[in-house]
Design brief:
Length: about 350
């Protein structure tokens, strides 16, 4: 038992003057943004890990069918780099380690003060200050630095970014179009959050982020379509995540029909009791939901999907934008998949409140 846990004089609010207490809501809002940011990054990495595991299983099966019985080394494990070792970078590293989980040897941090990250070095994570070296190694780069630091970082890494390296930016002050110019790169994801005026603080105060994401109430509030907790996520982020998966498949020259199968497995394989045994009434993604009708009619069966500019996907209307906004059933099933990835099953009645904001950016 922690005898100091509820001691009033140790609480954050204790030293704040009465006239300033109206600003305390900002603390809850900041915590909510941190929890949502880490949750969505975790979901994204879980998807990529599952996709890479599917590639590895297919490679193993192919070798066995040709009579090769030796074990196939798994070179498809996701390698994640974090640029920035401040509060967000450290919280993100903890969550990825524990909830994806990313093995310590597959997570590296580049920061100006690596000596301050002894906690992570003791776990076997490489911490150093060499951004180009990190980019050379990683499949996914999370930008957790200050806006003032970003131009110099972009100068360091822009010539080292491979086309299929995914850059995931938490820097809210830098629009995605600006990031594209700074990095000379299109494989970029940038979640956009918006805070509403009237809200109820459900984010808690004492739990660390990893523990908070194991609380069903908090986790449901992080669902991509949820407005609970006063923070909404632009729908275009989820669209960007989906097209990122297609780009990963294209980089491996996966035929588009197989890529569609993988997409449905990753995003729409979890159902509710209302779906029925065979799931025949459940939504599935088809070629026309992702590319224009003209393009879909002329795409040869063995051809991969085209390479998508993720910055354009997040800024413009796409076939999937229209399909997603017009299909509540699709939104429901994406929510089922999201919660299931964290070990929580939802009934229809437990669906979190859906944001009514426009999916456009």
């Amino acid at each position: 038992m922690d005898i100091l846990e509820d001691l009033e004089s140790l609480q954050f609010e204790y030293g704040i003057q009465k006239e300033d207490r109206s600003w305390l809501y900002l603390q809850g809002r900041s915590r909510g943004l941190m929890i949502k940011s880490c949750a969505h990054a975790t979901f994204f990495c879980k998807l990529l890990c599952n996709l890479r595991e599917s590639f590895h299983e297919e490679q193993t099966s192919s070798r066995l069918s040709t009579g090769v019985v030796a074990g196939v080394p798994n070179d498809d494990e996701l390698k994640v780099g974090i640029i920035g070792g401040g509060h967000l970078g450290k919280q993100l590293a903890r969550v990825l380690l524990q909830l994806v989980p990313i093995p310590a040897e597959n997570l590296r941090i580049s920061t100006r003060r690596p000596e301050a990250l002894g906690e992570f070095q003791n776990l076997g994570i490489q911490c150093f200050y060499h951004n180009p070296h990190l980019v050379d190694w990683a499949n996914v780069i999370f930008l957790c630095c200050l806006p003032s630091q970003l131009p110099n970082i972009c100068l360091e890494i822009q010539t080292r970014l491979e086309k299929d390296c995914i850059v995931y930016s938490f820097i809210a002050a830098i629009p995605i179009a600006r990031l594209k110019l700074l990095l000379n790169h299109t494989n970029i994801l940038r979640p956009q959050y918006q805070c509403v005026e009237e809200w109820v603080n459900i984010w808690g105060a004492n739990k660390d982020i990893t523990a908070a994401l194991q609380d069903p109430v908090i986790l449901q509030a992080t669902c991509p379509f949820s407005s609970a907790g006063g923070i909404t996520l632009n729908f275009k982020w989820l669209e960007g995540v989906l097209y990122t998966v297609l780009n990963v498949c294209t980089a491996r020259d996966v035929p588009h029909l197989r890529a569609l199968q993988l997409l449905n497995q990753l995003f729409l394989s979890v159902h509710s009791a209302a779906c029925g045994k065979d799931g025949a009434s459940c939504p599935t993604l088809e070629l026309r939901d992702l590319v224009s009708q003209v393009y879909s009619k002329n795409l040869p069966q063995r051809r991969p999907f085209p390479w998508f500019d993720l910055t354009a996907v997040q800024l413009k209307e796409t076939p999937f934008s229209q399909h997603l906004s017009a299909s509540p059933a699709l939104q429901d099933h994406l929510t089922y998949q999201y919660c299931n990835s964290f070990g929580i099953s939802l009934t229809k009645e437990q669906q979190p409140a859906v944001s009514t904001g426009s999916p456009s950016q």
